[in-house]
């Protein structure tokens, strides 16, 4: 299916484990983003990528690692999961960095760290 | 820094009532403004946008006007339906920096029949 897809939709893990959340888009959009959604905070940017092999930190990058070897994929890795990383994670993409461009969101991954 | 402040929820209305969800912002430069909607169990969907002062965005009966003088982008709908029950996010995007969206905290709207 075309669009932006995230996997898994739900994940339960334990403190200290490594977890990778996947994001795939079929539009060949240049920009991709990872946000986390927490009650009272709205969505906050973790990392973003302007193109393949170009990534940069957002507002809350600590404890996360990203890569972008291909334009269509933008995985997010929690190297050693902590309880504070329990959240809903959203991936998004946009055609360019223009302020007018719409960001399109995936359905999200709900992560619980026990 | 750039920020968005939204009317706190939750908001509960009866069907066919008039809706206003307030949104104000602080930004450097000339932001674009957006309203996103999140239905239960789903990701965020763009509801409407405005890219310059005095622009009015509209979609599905919802409207919002970009007011630079009051730094506001309030969401309105004349007659809400049960199907409008969702969480609504106001957001801005600025031209410099991370090209990110800056979100408000979200407003949960429940419409009762």
Give structural notes.
- The complex is a heterodimer of chains A (114) and B (113).
- Chain A is mainly beta.
- Chain A has strands spanning 4-7, 10-13, 19-25, 31-38, 42-51, 54-57, 64-66, 76-78, 87-94, 104-105, 109-113.
- Chain A has no helices and eleven strands.
- In chain A, the strands form two sheets. In chain A, strands 2, 4, 5, 6, 9, 10 and 11 form a seven-stranded mixed sheet that branches. A four-stranded antiparallel sheet of chain A has the order 1-3-8-7, with no helix packed on it.
- In chain A, strand 5 and strand 6 (54-57) form a beta hairpin.
- Chain A starts with a strand and ends with a strand.
- The mean pLDDT of chain A is 92.
- Chain B is globular.
- The A-B interface holds A 31, 33, 35, 40-45, 48, 50, 56, 58-59, 90, 92, 94, 97, 99-100, 102-108 and B 4, 6, 30-32, 34, 36, 41-46, 49, 51, 89, 93-95, 98-101, 103-106.
In short:
The complex is a heterodimer of chains A (114) and B (113). Chain A is an all-beta fold.
**Regions with little confidence, pLDDT below 50 for 5+ residues of chain B:** none
Q: Percentage of helical residues of chain A?
A: under 10%
Helix content estimate of chain B = under 10%
Mean pLDDT of chain A: 92
Summarize the main sheet of chain A.
7 strands, mixed
| Distinct helical segment count of chain A | 0
> What profile does the largest beta sheet of chain B have?
6 strands, mixed
Distance between the termini of chain A: 33 Å
Greatest interface (CB-CB under 8 A), with counts per chain:
A-B, 27 and 27 residues
- Spell the H/E element sequence of chain A: EEEEEEEEEEE
Shape of chain B: globular
Strand element count of chain B:
12
Individual helix count of chain B: 0
Number of strands of chain A: 11
- Work out the radius of gyration of chain A: 13 Å
Straight-line N-to-C gap of chain B: 41 Å
Beta-strand percent range of chain A: over 45%
Helix/strand/pairing category of chain A: mainly beta
Instruction: Give me the oligomer status.
Output: heterodimer
Strand content of chain B: over 45%
